Every structure is written in C-alpha cells, then in structure tokens.
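Appendix B, example 12.
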Amino acid sequence: MYDKDKIDLIVKQVVDNVKNANSGNISLSLALALTEKVKQKASEMGVKAVIAVADAGANTISLQSMDGAYIASADIAVNKAFTVVSLKMPTKNLASLAAPGGSLYGIQFTNGGKIVIFGGGVPLYSKDGRIIGGIGISGGSADQDTALGDYAAEIFKTLI
C-alpha cells in the first residue's frame, strides 16, 4: 500500500534538512515524513488513523486522514497535538491527573474544550530536549492510538 522507497527518500531529505536547521520548531517536511511513517504503521495495525502535527506554538502544520477514518478523529487528533505542546506531556498521562481528586481535575473543560485526556498524543523533542512540536493520532482504540503515538515518538528520534 505504501511505497517504501518513496518514504525512505522523503525521510532522507528531511534528515538532511534537519541537520542544518536550528529553528527550535518542527518543519513541514519533517512533519510529513513522520506522518508517512505513522500511516504505514497504522495500516499494518489495521487502524484508519488521522494524524495531526503541531509546531512549538501548538499550531497545526499538518493534518492527514487515512481513507475510511472517522470524521470525528480529525478534531480529536488536532486537539491531541495541541494538548501535548500546551501541557508538555503525553495525553496518556492526563487521564489519572484529570480524574476526580486528581491535581488537574476538570482540565479537559478548559481551553475551549481542546484538552484531550486519553492516549494518542505525544510531544516531539529536539536533540537537546526542547519541545519543537507534537503529534496527535486518532482513529483506533485508546490503546492503538497510544501505541501509534509512542511509535511516532521513537521514529521521530531517528528522523532528527
């Protein structure tokens, strides 16, 4: 379904660009390369995902929907990417913090309802540990979205 050679070429171009960049922000080409890798993995898992990538300011720079993905997943993916950049943590960490009695109880009702408290969103870090963006993935179960988010974080390390 996905052309491995095409993906590898895109990744190589991104790696070359990133080596010379020091903007403190994720580039569109890097976001697209990461998205291609995540779509490939989602396809292998049988998940029809929507993948959103946000920059360091939590602005969406890329949004892609696999064929047959849920319509609602687009908004959820964008909000997951917003959440991880805004709160500087994976969305999977928020469930317990936002539960009754948790230190962030009710946080999902702030920011115009854009805070997501279940898995599938992860911050993206530069080599020196700064958050330069975030990715939000929606379309599978919470466990599948979390697995794809964790995969994205690991793959991102190899791309920069």
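The beta strands are 50-55, 60-65, 121-125, 131-138. Helices lie at 4-20, 28-45, 72-87, 94-98, 142-159.
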